[in-house]
């Protein structure tokens, strides 16, 4: 088996598909054999095997343990546990060692402590730390050894697995284990910390210092795991853990020392032989300790807030946040306080935010009845109040705004080299945390927690900027400071609303800043644009044309791409604003569209094109038919942009979205765009297309708009009905819009279209009526209404399966009232269209499905027809049901006659609605039929013309006997024939209807 397994692993790494697939198949076959995991371990440990095969064996072993361990024999388990723990320390390849360590962790999850009690004694013995109780001298083994690193990583993996257990028993077991491990790991951590600090201080390159730093980093990770997960959370128990009082402050002191030495190597005050090789590992270890503080605040807030821990931690965080690049945080005394390290400063801001937003420290003192708990809360609030004094808050805000939020040299270089990338990283949301983004979050948290003080400090900065004059005001440093301050004003727009007269500030300060006379001024111009967007609610109506003029004639035409894209983003904010007025923007619309099209055509970054399309679509939405004069320019650039989009689905979605809105703006004139639109539709609506998963829905929306204003269906459009039907047969994911598209095909194409495509459409509808839920049924039934008005009465038998499915669902109690009303409306339409077929179809269904019990079928039908109709808010549907029910009486079925009073009561009640203002002449037929559906999702925009689709539906309905005169005449005819016998109250109601 060993040889076969080794060969399969090597084959699985082949570049040839056939060999690789064969190797994978052999592995799947061998995994069920006894000794499979042991053979994988043998390959992973064998030095003669290729590196790729060894690492693949380690990966397969790791996953095999997760999958097969419970079914592995006890003997093989013992063998694997022993071999893994004995051999992992001697593995040379890092990749193999990592996967074997992870495998040990997964075994520990299953077997510790019941079947593997010797795990931790053996591990600690290998680490040379067994029996040590802490201190720098714990253990005799050199920390630079590879085996120490391997065993330390095994300890980390095992602790991570055990700490991740969520059942109470597993958590208690890990907490008990932590009490035993903490002194040992603490001793290792102290010893490693001392050696790392010495190596940093002296720059000594003797020995393998990289291994030392890696071991220290692993020790820090294990300490974090033990302290955070190894103790019960005290957030609700208020039980302070005494171990933290000693361990955490010492850990913080270690961090400060190593931070000082690490920063000194970066500044070049010590030998740099150590830093390039080991610096990243040292930095990761320091960040891990900071994350320990952050997690403590969340999990153990009361153990953190004790004076011994919180005061030095807060001071350390304050120094980091207040520090500046290339200098210490306090008076340049590098020995007295930490020196600026960007990653540490960022994480310090995150920890400070977690302290300020902690719900434990902000809880009401009066809600705590227990004196000890109340004392803890009072102490925490007093401690934080003392720390966040006015001086500290001011220093942090000044540093954050003037230093950390300011543009750096790297930012300005990127602006020049890659302007579009700079814009999207800084202005449209950066998923990677940066010093600036963390500074902005911290400032927002200060605004939330200390609003009055923060606003006061920001106003001082604003006044300083406004009062600055002379050469110093135009220096590059002052421009950077002003840009950062304006950024702060963007973030604090809501809080500064009552303190700043924005119109006066704009006229007095911002207009001057918008000058592009110097190249450096573009920094301010960009930020002023965003300031306008952030303060859009404070821009008065009479000032908006001035802003539009500024955007159209100065910012959007600017040659600098960053400013151009910033203006694009600001324009979107103003158009999307509640106070946007079309008449104000109309004079600037041509220039706006011209500049947006230029950006779309010349931008090399797809994100820039997507952003511009977003603004373009918004203009089309808000301006509607006013865009018609510029439609040719917009449509003409679509093919080129579509071709360049290649596999950029997001950009193609924006193109389809823009064309969907353009169809709504053009109305009946949209037929002129078919030469461009139809190829887009053919690509996007095809459910088998390469990008159908991402763009199919947007293609359907565009097709819906095309059909809404189409005069006729050409063969290319008709072909797409097959795509829609195929998708509806596969899935109901896009049923709302797909059903309306199919309905649109029938409305536009009429009988000629149905004669060609009826088999495909009827089969699709049959499958849908058997598959969709009640909500889906309300989306499908409007299609039947159109079919019954268009398709020849003589061929309605082709829909026999559909009628049977609808009747079957009509008999189901679980159907919603809305769905039942839609179904019975279809049968009312059928009775109006072909009463004889209606009667035959009901009789056939009763015979085949109900054993000939027609009374049961008619009883259910009349019950839904009369009682459930009141669930519909549509007067049109109720009047349709009224007429259909009157005609159904001509069948003279005994079940109808026995329920005559019930039927006449409903008919006369509905007849009274003809006296009301919402008579048929005042009803929007399309809206009434699609009651309860959000039509705005599919037709948001109005071209100012009559909607051809709605007009076609109204023409279909105009021939129906659904008006008062016809209803009265139908009733009078049946009364005169004796079909209806009215007496008592019903007779009076009938007379009232006739006289009304």
From TrEMBL:
Nucleus among keywords: yes
GO terms for cellular component: cytosol; nuclear envelope
Family designation: Belongs to the importin beta family.
Domain Importin N-terminal: 23-90
Main location, first listed in the record: cytoplasm
GO molecular function, one term: small GTPase binding
Subcellular location: Cytoplasm; Nucleus
Record flagged with keyword Translocase: no
Name by which UniProt lists this protein: Importin
Keywords for the protein's UniProt record, in alphabetical order: Cytoplasm, Nucleus, Protein transport, Transport
SMART domains according to UniProt: IBN_N (SM00913)
Pfam families registered for this protein in UniProt: Cse1, IBN_N, TPR_IPO11
Gene3D superfamilies: Leucine-rich Repeat Variant
PANTHER family membership: IMPORTIN-11, IMPORTIN-7, 8, 11
GO process terms (BP): protein import into nucleus
InterPro entries xref list: ARM-like, ARM-type_fold, Importin-beta_N, TPR_IPO7/11-like, XPO2_central
Superkingdom: Eukaryota
